[in-house]
UniProtKB/TrEMBL annotation:
Entry's Gene Ontology cellular component terms: Golgi apparatus; membrane
Annotated SUPFAM superfamilies: Rhomboid-like (SSF144091)
Reported function: Serine protease involved in intramembrane proteolysis.
BP terms from Gene Ontology: proteolysis
Species of the source: Tagetes erecta (African marigold)
Protein's name in the database: RHOMBOID-like protein
Residue ranges constituting the Peptidase S54 rhomboid domain according to the UniProt record: 181-317
Domain of life: Eukaryota
Keywords: Hydrolase, Membrane, Protease, Serine protease, Transmembrane, Transmembrane helix
GO function terms (MF aspect): serine-type endopeptidase activity
Pfam families in alphabetical order: Rhomboid (PF01694)
Residue intervals passing through the bilayer: 20-42, 106-125, 183-211, 223-241, 275-294, 300-318, 345-367
UniProt record similarity statement: Belongs to the peptidase S54 family.
Length: 395
């Protein structure tokens, strides 16, 4: 979840000022997000198991055929007929693709630790007991924590710091990025969170999604994917949200979801039960994007991160087609299979082009001070849809 927060010198125009209502929406988002992610985690575990069984079954069948040939050749039973062809796996190192390696996940846990540590730093800097005027909005929450105590719930229902503290430490803000040339905020905001609820939601999502990807593809590809998706989400968010500050890792997290989708599509031949996995993943993405249309949730970061991750998945997570992986089981005179399919090459090239063009156009527009809402009059509905229960901030 990417959280948007109002600066202290600006008045929110959302009619739902009750922190109970805001907390309910955030709790609903948290529940839906992790219910579907947990369901998908169990489903993909089963999917991966089936895929491994598919590879093992082919290898086992081939080995049996080879063993049978040896028995026919050396056995004493002459009534078994002519010996069958014996296939031997070549000594070439290419028959096992590197993507089949089970990597040890250490980057994702490190990111979780870094985010938790950064949140502790934020709360120490915030120092609610010393910097908050209790006569205006009430006392700090959990005062027994001392400097780590939270802002009053009416100010921050997520159990976190003030918006001024987040702004000081690197929250994404259009004015500071464009006019003060603080481009580093496009990166720093990924590691900031608006509260304990916000941090917990994003870190659980990262564990559910990130560890599985890192185990399959390694820390280098997942690390590049995580950071570029987070930056892509920040760019789109800064282009369309000009009056609020924004923090959170959800752009990067949606990038991982987008990469999972493109990875499934581009590596279609190596999976079993893929249609069910595709349906489940699409439902999860749509539910999260739909809930992102509630106020105080930065859906532009979600969309930007998802699109970046989706394109990066075609580039970074491509794997050899199933027929190439199993070519060592074929006779020596069998026709060689291409390692990748034509559509994998096409998607790879198109994705690289779209990524370069997208980042270039986005950064140029941002640093020229363009407001995305002026070029797209309806795009603000992608982040917040007004209803009879609430109005949206004028972004």
């Amino acid at each position: 979840m990417k959280s948007t927060d109002k600066q202290p010198n600006r008045v929110s125009t959302c009619s739902c000022t009750s922190y109970h209502i805001i907390s309910f929406r955030i709790t609903l988002y948290f529940f839906l997000k992790h219910f579907f992610l947990f369901f998908f985690y169990i489903h993909t575990t089963h999917l991966h198991h089936i895929s491994n069984q598919k590879h093992s079954l082919v290898n086992q069948t081939t080995t049996t055929m080879g063993s049978g040939g040896d028995i026919e050749r050396w056995g004493s039973n002459k009534n078994r007929g002519p010996p069958q062809a014996t296939y031997y796996a070549p000594s070439s190192p290419y028959h096992t693709d590197s993507s089949d390696k089970q990597w040890t996940s250490w980057l994702v846990p490190m990111i979780v630790v870094a985010n938790v540590a950064m949140f502790l730093v934020i709360m120490l800097v915030n120092d609610c007991p010393s910097n908050h005027n209790s006569s205006l909005q009430g006392d700090c929450v959990a005062k027994f924590l001392g400097r780590l105590s939270f802002q009053p719930l009416k100010e921050n229902p997520l159990f976190g710091p003030s918006s001024s503290t987040l702004e000081k430490l690197g929250a994404l803000e259009w004015d500071k990025v464009v006019n003060d040339h603080q481009a580093w905020r496009l990166v720093s905001c990924i590691f900031l969170h608006a509260g304990v609820v916000h941090l917990l939601a994003n870190m659980l999502s990262l564990v559910f999604i990130g560890i599985r990807l890192e185990q399959q593809f390694g820390f280098i590809r997942v690390g590049i994917l995580y950071m570029l998706a987070g930056i892509g989400g920040s760019i789109l968010s800064a282009l369309f949200i000009t009056n609020n500050i924004s923090v959170g890792a959800s752009g990067a997290l949606f990038g991982l979801l987008g990469a999972m989708l493109s990875e499934l599509l581009t590596n279609w031949t190596i999976y079993a039960n893929k249609a069910a996995a595709l349906f489940t993943l699409v439902i999860i993405i749509l539910v999260n994007l739909a809930v992102g249309m509630l106020p105080h949730v930065d859906n532009f970061a979600h969309i930007g991160g998802f699109l970046t991750g989706f394109l990066l998945g075609f580039v970074l997570l491509i794997r050899p087609q199933f027929s190439w992986q199993e070519r060592h089981n074929l006779p020596a005179n069998s026709r060689s299979k291409s390692k990748y399919t034509i559509y994998q090459y096409v998607f790879w090239l198109l994705s690289v082009i779209l990524l370069v063009v997208g980042f270039t156009v986005g950064l140029v527009m941002l640093f020229k001070g363009e407001n995305g809402n002026k070029h797209c009059s309806w795009c603000h509905y992608l982040s917040c849809v007004p209803t009879s229960r609430w109005r949206c901030d004028n972004q």
